[in-house]
Amino acid sequence: MRRDRSHTSLPAARVKRIHTHRRYYAMRLTTSLSSSVPGRALAAGRIPPAWALAGTATGLALVFALDRATGSAPMQHLYYLPIILAAVSFGLRGGFAAAAAAIVLYHLANTHLLTFQYSESDLVQVTLFAAVGAVAARLARDARRLQALAMTDDLTGLHNLRSFEARLDALVRAARRSRRPMALLVLDVDRLKALNDAHGHLAGAEAVRLVGHLIAARAPDGAIACRYGGDEFVIALADATRERAEAFADDLRRTVHDAAPELAGRRFQAGTLSVSIGIACQPPGGGPVPAEGDRRTGETLFRSADSALYAAKAGGRNQVHAAEAGPAPACAAPVRASSGRGT
Fold this sequence. Notes:
By secondary structure, the chain is an alpha+beta fold. The chain has helices spanning 39-44, 49-70, 73-76, 80-109, 120-151, 161-178, 192-199, 201-218, 242-258, 294-314, and strands at residues 182-189, 224-227, 232-238, 262-263, 266-267, 275-282, 320-323.
């Protein structure tokens, strides 16, 4: 797929600025690696389990004290709060466990219940404890699923554009503040149109899916991967020198080329698929911060990696090509194309 270079400023792209031939997709999650797919990014935003457990226990104890001192319904309704916290943090089992603890404490705070002298309101209250735990756990699970769907690519399970943009900004900012290097890789599937023409678009879609899954399987911890076009991918590598980025890119290139895929029900020989990869690196410290901030730095890296991708294509495809991201010394070594001529 050939692209208009005037629109390769990925991190600043938004739907209203995208030409109609550039399509982006809402996605479904895969869980094969760390932050290169959105699953653990979601988990990272949740309350740490130890804190959630401590908060649930403390909340139950405080409400128990208030219930024993007052015996009033408004105080008893406060049991819902730690139950909800446990359900959101630990799921259905956590919600039911907190509800069971609340029921026990409710009985201990209101000693007439120990002889099973229940009023109608007591039965309602006990039932609500369990119901709140179950409903809160279900709502929290559904909310996490919806958030994952909003972050992931339905075909490959990688990040979608919106999710990638936010994480790239954060990665660039973290690299600058910690004065550590990072790299950006842009790649696409070689001669996908020929595959579509010869074997149908289903085969082409399955080829793109396979490449996405291989990216997920090979990407290192801390990597963020995205499918941002039909057969186009971008990968951000944290704490990555030029050498590390080139080694990863060439490993990915070889993995794709060595695969013997089954596409649209037909087995293809190894070497059928290949990818061309462009690399741009950001040196430790990142150099001066542009007036537009970290987003502009991400755009500059993307443009450089995209230009390197074009050089890899021009060099024969199935290659890795590294380009300068700027005048910084760490990125100023001569560009090298990796070995391998593909299909």
